Fold Secreted protein.
Amino acid sequence: MSVRFTAKARRGMVALIIAAGLAVGVAGCGGGGDDKKPDSSASASKNGGSKPSAQEGQSDVPLAELRGANGLLLQITSAQRDSGGFVTVNGQFKNDGSQSAVIPAELRGDETEILKHGTSLGGATLVDSQGKKRYYVLRDTDGRPLTTTGLTTIDAGQTIPVFMQFPSPPANVTDVSLQLPTFSSGTIKISG
């Protein structure tokens, strides 16, 4: 036999041994043939999608509903004060209309820095009427707003989860007004 043929045969044997080892390893990781079905809480598709957990601070009853044009509705589900000095507002956009609606570009506000980063909820503000202060959406070091971005259209009946982060008002302030361009304003209670 030639040296080339022997080297090829050895490489083939090594490849076969590695493949067999991987197959055995994968079979061993497969759960041992146990045909138990996953718990219903582990399967989001079985329930029609994932539901927010209590840990996420979401509630069934919205804190506020802000109405916009063309059947758009912003439901605020939580406003949580964090120890880091900011407030995170969570909610969902809903299209109550009968047709698809375009998310208004005005929601991003008119600040030059935010306009560079596309569509967002960068125009949102929290108003503390007690302290006579307005809090604007926070931005990262590149000037991007700390909100949901990339909003374009929403189909009839569809909901889209959204969030916004603001500097935290003083600890004694719990009721603030959330304002969003082209939408009605609403009063929300900050928890935490």
Notes: The chain has a mean pLDDT of 78. The longest strand covers residues 72-81.
